[in-house]
């Protein structure tokens, strides 16, 4: 039921809502700016290449920001009126977009680890089983949360707002974050383990150095993505505090705004760069050589047969088309 009121006691809440909407617009602007900066690379390394699973995952994650931003703006902008039913639907849509992007980023991580472990079928099966178990559990818990959420439209001094009654404790939401943390920590540990093992065992041949450079690119981008995930997780954990979540103070809104910016950056900037950075490295390597070197043995997507002197190497690429 829509609540209409001109009570001055709601003015702090109105100002808080308007303030937080600025951060949401800023978050989308930051992602749009990154898209403008990298579109040239995206066009050359994704759109003009042969289509593959990585191409589809990259574009799906990259452009999921559009429905995500539209939905969160509909919820947050004080000039947009939504009914109770539409408010609830928008909330559900936002959660499922987030879950879908998280699943696709998980698939990208699995592909990277599969490449780093020399396309080991045992490792691939293990990663798929673990990831599927965690993602399915998160989806079930998320759906349980959604069944208890109800949205309500507020019209306060001609300002439109949406408020949500979770109808349950924060425990299910905390469980989802914990499951995501388990996966990210596991992925990081596996990546670090195989990288350390590789750098110890690899010979100092030119091919070995090239493969080492590729591992360096993979680890750097993974570490940056993991760092952003840790920051977002810490901010989410702090937001569980009732004194912070229910506060309309400027400090609380700045906290929430920074959380939104970091969430946008993690999912829609650093996520796609997990693919783009490797393709960029591979393109530079190919551009500097007449023949693709054995570096591509570890990294990327179609089955390619190349001659290397006296032998023929079958290379299954996981990121380049």
Describe the protein.
The protein has 321 residues and is mainly alpha-helical. The protein contains 10 helices and 5 strands. It has helices at residues 11-47, 53-63, 65-76, 84-116, 121-148, 171-201, 206-239, 242-245, 250-287, 296-299, and strands spanning 3-5, 150-156, 159-165, 303-308, 311-316. The radius of gyration is 23 Å and the shape is elongated.
Q: What's the structural blueprint in terms of helices and strands?
A:
Elements: E1 3-5, H1 11-47, H2 53-63, H3 65-76, H4 84-116, H5 121-148, E2 150-156, E3 159-165, H6 171-201, H7 206-239, H8 242-245, H9 250-287, H10 296-299, E4 303-308, E5 311-316
Parallel strand pairs: 1-2
Antiparallel strand pairs: 2-3, 4-5
Helix pairs in contact: 1-3, 1-9, 2-4, 2-9, 3-4, 4-5, 4-6, 4-9, 5-6, 6-7, 7-9
Throw out a few tags for this protein.
321 residues; mainly alpha; three-stranded mixed β-sheet; two-stranded antiparallel sheet; 5 strands; elongated; disordered C terminus
């Amino acid at each position: 039921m829509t609540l209409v009121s001109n009570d001055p006691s709601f003015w702090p809440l109105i100002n808080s809502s308007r303030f937080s909407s600025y951060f949401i617009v800023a978050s989308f602007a930051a992602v749009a700016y990154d898209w403008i900066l990298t579109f040239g690379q995206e066009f050359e390394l994704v759109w003009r290449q042969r289509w593959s699973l990585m191409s589809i995952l990259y574009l799906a994650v990259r452009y999921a920001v559009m429905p995500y931003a539209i939905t969160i703006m509909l919820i947050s902008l004080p000039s947009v009126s939504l009914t109770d039913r539409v408010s609830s639907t928008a909330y559900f849509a936002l959660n499922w977009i987030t879950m879908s992007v998280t699943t696709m980023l998980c698939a990208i991580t699995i592909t990277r680890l599969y490449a780093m472990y020399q396309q080991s079928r045992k490792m691939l099966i293990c990663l798929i089983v673990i990831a599927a178990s965690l993602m399915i559990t998160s989806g079930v818990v998320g759906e349980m949360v959604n069944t208890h959420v109800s949205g309500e439209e507020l019209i306060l001094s001609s300002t439109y707002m949406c408020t949500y009654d979770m109808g349950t404790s924060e425990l299910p939401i905390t469980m989802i974050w914990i499951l995501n943390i388990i996966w990210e920590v596991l992925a990081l540990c596996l990546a670090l383990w195989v990288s350390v093992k590789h750098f110890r065992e690899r010979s100092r041949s030119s091919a070995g150095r090239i493969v080492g450079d590729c591992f360096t690119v993979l680890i750097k981008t993974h570490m940056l993505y993991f760092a952003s995930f840790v920051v977002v997780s810490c901010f989410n954990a702090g937001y569980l505090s009732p004194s912070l979540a229910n506060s309309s103070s400027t400090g609380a809104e700045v906290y929430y705004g920074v959380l939104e910016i970091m969430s946008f950056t993690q999912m829609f900037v650093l996520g796609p760069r997990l693919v783009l950075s490797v393709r960029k490295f591979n393109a530079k390597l190919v551009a500097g050589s007449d023949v693709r070197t054995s570096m591509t043995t570890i990294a990327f997507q179609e089955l390619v047969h190349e001659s290397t002197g006296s032998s023929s190497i079958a290379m299954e690429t996981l990121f380049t088309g």
